[in-house]
Amino acid sequence: MGDQFEASAYLHTYTEAVDWINGLIPFGIRPGMSRIEKMMEMLNNPHRRLKFIHIAGTNGKGSTCAYLTRVLLQSGYSVGTFTSPFITKFTNRFQYNGEDIPEETLLAFANRLYPIVEEIAATELGSPTMFEVSTALAILYYAEECVPDIVVWETGLGGRLDVTNIVFPVISVITNVGMDHTDVLGDTVEQIAFEKAGIIKSGVPVVSCVEQPGAVEVLRTKAEECRTTLYLAGEKFSYEYTGEQGPYQTFHFKGPFREYDVEIGMKGVHQVANAAGALMALEILRQYMAFVMDEEDILKGFRETVWAGRMEEVSSAPRIVLDGAHNPEGAESLRKSIERHYPHERLILMMGMLSNKHHESYLKHILPIVDTLILTEPDFRKKMDAAALHELAEGLMHSYGKPGLQIIVEPDWKNALELLKSRTEAEDLAVVSGTLYLISDVRAALLGQTDSEKGW
């Protein structure tokens, strides 16, 4: 497909294309649908030809996407998966049947979008952003190149004004609601729920594991307005953790159509809720949309789902676990997950954060179980200084810190990683947590990956 654009190649290599898209980052995240609508209109609305499962939520979006993708592939369907941020390489965002978009295909579609972006940039709408162009590229890829049976479609931020909301899905999923991106989405659970509920569409069933009464009310009101069914955990379906079976967590799922005993290979207390929400969405596909999925394939899919950087053990000597928990709810899950899955003598935690989050609440959840805290900085423009993080931790140590807690400040993450490795004895557990920008670099270093690009 690469040569059909030779005559008008604005960008000549994959690297140029990625640099061009990332070069739009200064235009920021500008909530609103006007630019993506204009791009789609100029491309003849390719998104209208696809079936989407649209996923929003504070935590667990990526894992839910991973479960849905794995089970649908196992059941013989072709699947597009659009997620962010990526862990290793820009192409990770755009997957088809579990494989990244080929570099030359990305280049070709970037060249299709280049003149359109320039044209819109010259109007009062202003330049489309990096995320808008990535979203348009994903739609083109799925609508024109690979045409999957279904696209698993993750929101970037919020829901109502997120550019991914251009699509009209067959199912919407809202995993949960927590305090994250409060600078953009509002600083109460209800305000954040309102933004997430923006993906609920007329007549499109919505699945959610949201628990806070105020947030549930927001979703319920929106579902009623849209005259659609809200499949809420605890009402229309339920799930109960039943223990460990070798390397698997097990849970019992009871839905409106059938019951299952499910095993999942992903660690973390929160993964049971993510898997249950994904299973409810799959049940709707099966029951109402003529998707054929055998129970055997469904269960095998859940068992085999993996997702990089989420309670992922990347080294056994020393034992190092990576987890992209970066908000209070994530920290609470991380703490419970460590207690459930990883017995240890001492816990050495290395963390790095962006500057726009609720780090005080995060530290309150995690400090009580940490023996050594190594504070570092992600290699990213919006990083939080390790010194500022240190000040926060120092202020909380007296009330929340474990007796004898030691804090080390090492802004260079590579040096911090060496410290982490050298201080972790055989019976100890090392955890790297915080922003995925840090996780992706550490993961690449530990797994010896050379083409790690990382980014939002």
How would you characterize the overall build of this protein?
It comes from Paenibacillus dokdonensis. Its EC number is 6.3.2.17. The chain is α/β, with parallel strands linked by helices and 456 residues long. Helices cover 40% and strands 19% of the residues. It is built from 15 helices and 17 strands. The chain has helices at 14-22, 34-42, 61-74, 103-121, 130-146, 182-185, 189-196, 213-225, 270-288, 295-304, 328-341, 359-366, 386-400, 413-423, 436-447, and strands at residues 52-56, 79-82, 94-96, 99-100, 150-154, 171-174, 206-208, 230-232, 238-245, 248-254, 259-264, 312-316, 319-323, 347-352, 372-377, 406-412, 429-434. Strands 4-3-2-5-1-6-7-8 form an eight-stranded mixed beta sheet, with helices on both faces. Helix 12 (359-366) links the parallel strand 14 and strand 15. The longest helix is centred in the first third of the chain and has 19 residues, at 103-121. It is globular, with a radius of gyration of 22 Å. 50% of the residues are buried.
Q: What keyword list fits this structure?
A:
15 helices, 456 residues, 8-stranded mixed sheet
Write down the Rg. 22 Å
The level of helicity is: 25-40%
Query: What is the strand content?
Result: 15-25%
Number of E-type strands: 17
Main pleated sheet = 8 strands, mixed
Shape: globular
- Average predicted confidence as pLDDT: 92
First CA to last CA: what distance?
27 Å
SS-based structural class? alpha/beta
Assembly annotation: single chain
